[in-house]
Amino acid sequence: MVHLTALMLDTRLQELRAALEKNDLAGALAILQMLQPPDQADLLDELEPADQITLLPALQPAESADILEEMDDDRAAELVAALPTAAVVRIIDEMEPDEAADLLGDLEPAQARQVLAKLEDAKELRPLLLHADDSAGGLMTPEFLALRRRTSTADALDAIRAWQPKSDTLSDLFVIDGDGRLCGVVSMRQLIIAPPEALMIDIMDPDPVWVSVGTDQEACAQLMSHYSLLVLPVVNAAHELVGVITIDDVVDVLEAEATEDIQRLGGAEPLKRPYLDTPVLNIARKRISWLLLLFVTESLTGSVLRFFESELQAVVALSFFIPLLIGTGGNAGSQTTSTIIRALAVGDVRKRDALAAFWHELRVGLLLAAVMAVIAYGRALLWGTTPDLALAVAFSILAIIIWANSLGALLPLGAVALKIDPTVVSGPAMSTLVDATGLFIYFTIARLIIGL
Amino acid sequence: MVHLTALMLDTRLQELRAALEKNDLAGALAILQMLQPPDQADLLDELEPADQITLLPALQPAESADILEEMDDDRAAELVAALPTAAVVRIIDEMEPDEAADLLGDLEPAQARQVLAKLEDAKELRPLLLHADDSAGGLMTPEFLALRRRTSTADALDAIRAWQPKSDTLSDLFVIDGDGRLCGVVSMRQLIIAPPEALMIDIMDPDPVWVSVGTDQEACAQLMSHYSLLVLPVVNAAHELVGVITIDDVVDVLEAEATEDIQRLGGAEPLKRPYLDTPVLNIARKRISWLLLLFVTESLTGSVLRFFESELQAVVALSFFIPLLIGTGGNAGSQTTSTIIRALAVGDVRKRDALAAFWHELRVGLLLAAVMAVIAYGRALLWGTTPDLALAVAFSILAIIIWANSLGALLPLGAVALKIDPTVVSGPAMSTLVDATGLFIYFTIARLIIGL
What torsion, rounded to 10 degrees, do the Cα atoms B28, B33, B34, B36 define? Predict the structure, then answer.
């Protein structure tokens, strides 16, 4: 099997479309079968729904299952919704249980019930349907091989030989006691290196890292990344081993969480599907609420300006510096929030570091403010502004940057203290807050210095 | 060994500090040795340099090596720089070669040369020092077990038993031909399941996914994530297998790349070290260049306002809407860029999708602009603005949002086409560009409608 560059993917897509146009189903299947499932999913994604519905059930159920696992969740659910139940049952029976449970959860309840009633693995799947998609329980697969403490290495290797897992991940095996409780972990390497008669209890690490079914998926991902784990065991309230989370699922979680954070920092609610697959109306809906909220907040700038109307009328030149001052404040604030929010997300700044982080940011703000004030003073004079007004501009930028940096640090740190997702303090939210307050600072300083 | 919550980490840290204050080195070591290397590194990170220098060489070289591998690169280099060469040599000899090479690269050249001259594994390390840190060659470890095509399963398992790798990752093994060229991959599971006499050539997948030494680390990470690989083979120009990249290194790369993108999107150059470890002066330096560049660009707003000075003098109320209009435009633009840039980073939008993405975003812009124009019209009237000016505000917001969304899509897509990192189009850069151009749109429309 070959892995594809974007160019090769295009060529295959053209071949596939040509075969489908000639109604050459065998030819189309042959093209698909040369590829690996992630690329098969990418190709299928580019086809018309009618062609997808023709191709998928024509493949072996195991092949179709692999493709569905690689497809975007919503796309997979849409495709499956259009297939006959019998075909769906055959395919889902071949999927990894965690992926199958996710897919069932995305189907219409009526179809999901129909399919579940006919599945071979239904008993294994039902408990998975109870867990939230974004918890350890929703991320785990219940398909694992648990060894007993008195099992010998030779018997363990035999058990692995006899076991036919759907998944290929087998780097660590877990050891349970008579009640099914997690009590150790053995790496595949230890199994192979140890003498055949060695018992699990002698070679296992008796204190594996674990999570419970309700643990948030982001916490699972950070734990696996922190301890460089390939498999993470999941236990229930009785400490019984009920599933395992594999690293490939976690890589997807980390990527999805970073995407959400970036979209939120840009001032929009995260999209649930890839950008081009999200209808225009949905994207607009994800943005309009923030845009409106910020618009209302930004209206405050109008009130501030009306409040200082007489000053503006007296010195029109005051208005020339409005966008420059509040824009620079917004930029400084946005630099700060994005840095602090990411530091919080990756654990570089923890709750107890809040004060240290604020102090750090305040000093950065002082430094930047001092430099920018000198430059702003020079720039204003170059424009032929009166020395008084130039001085007011310089002091305003000094105060606004210090204010923006303090606010940019305080708001996300405060959000975390109140257990709110700090990404609500997006770049646009920061600029908007700094705009109204920045204007107030500017006019107050101008009034004092120019003596309006 | 135990994995720690933040609270437990704090308790251990207090115990550790207490032991060190009493000069109880054995006690301090005992506390450290209860923990896993990632937590040991976290604890050590919190101590004074003098204590770090006492503790690290007092541990077994293999333990110290594990800790250094988990520490932040620059912190590890600083610590090692303060240790005697003999101790450094003992520790580095126990590190994984890819980590050792990274560390040597971060030391002063004189110290690096001294250490390298005394290392046992110097021959293995030297080639690694030639590769860029952020390429496959810099990420890989040269420590792998390559099997030959005619090796039997039984012999392969014996070879694994005889091999004592420093790393624990052993999920896939690669098969090479007589010239050392990569020709297949065998999973550990296949090795265990296959009959002892089966040959590698019969059970291997003859077409593994691979990268060459010069491949960018982000591309390696995306490939491993796309194909759910735990190990990725690295080959040189002659297709000889020269190293392997493991998934735990890639998880770190994905996280670091997302951090860089987020900091850039906030309008700052990325920090090389964790936030609180970066001196205030360095953070300020990473931000001042963008802040200045945006300041100069934002100065254009002043020129636009001067150009329309007579209109401003005639209708002071015009100025009340300035921050509202350009702020909303900046927000809409920032929503767009962050979404498009992330979609580009994760491959949801590819180069060839540029036109589709632009068309998608243009329609989103039209929709948002229409809604916001109606609301802005109502808001302006409520403020007691003249109907003419309210109409001018409504049309301006319509034009500015469509303009901001188009620009927010075009700039990152254009950057990619020109092979520039699209994150240069940060949120602040977008707002700044929209500010000056938005003002021009506003005054032009106002002049037409109000007839100034």
Answer: 130
The tens digit of pLDDT for each residue in B284-333 reads 888 888 888 888 888 888 888 888 888 888 888 888 898 889 989 999 99
pTM of model > 0.80: no
Interface of A with B in 107-146 (CB under 8 A): none
Contact at 8 Å (CB) between A25 and A58?
yes
Give the Cα separation of B426 and B334 in Å (integer): 8
Question: Does ipTM top 0.85?
Answer: no
CB atoms within 10 A of CB B94: 19
SS3 B27: helix
Tell me the average confidence (pLDDT) per consecutive run of 10 residues in chain A, 452 residues long: 61 89 90 87 87 90 90 86 90 87 86 87 78 84 84 85 66 88 88 85 90 89 85 92 88 85 85 83 88 85 86 85 90 91 85 90 94 92 89 95 94 90 85 90 92 74
Total residues found in chain A within this entry: 452
User: Angle CA(A273)–CA(A12)–CA(A72) in degrees, nearest 5?
Assistant: 15
Give the separation between CA A20 and CA A11, rounded to whole angstroms.
14
Q: Which of A130, A147, A126 is nearest to A190 (CA)?
A: A147
Tell me whether B369 touches chain A (CB under 8 Å).
Answer: no
Helix (H, G, I), strand (E, B) or coil at A107: coil
Return phi, psi of residue A368, to 5°: -60, -40
Q: Does A307 touch chain B (CB under 8 A)?
A: no
How many residue pairs bridge chain A and chain B with CB atoms within 8 Å of each other?
A: 373
Helix residue spans in B73-194 (DSSP H): 73-81, 85-92, 97-106, 109-118, 122-129, 136-139, 153-162, 188-193
Residue A120 identity (one-letter amino acid): E
Closest CA to B230 of B199, B188, B288, B265: B188
**Which residues in chain A touch residue B207, judged by CB atoms under 8 angstroms apart?**
1-2
- Domains contained in chain A, CATH given: 6-130 (1.25.60.10), 146-253 (3.10.580.10), 275-451 (1.10.357.20)
- What Cα–Cα distance (Å) separates residue A382 from each residue in A324, A397, A432? 15, 17, 29
Q: How far apart are CA A336 and CA A399, in angstroms?
A: 16
pLDDT digits 0-9 by tens, B357-413: 999 999 999 999 999 999 999 989 988 889 999 999 999 999 999 999 999 999 999
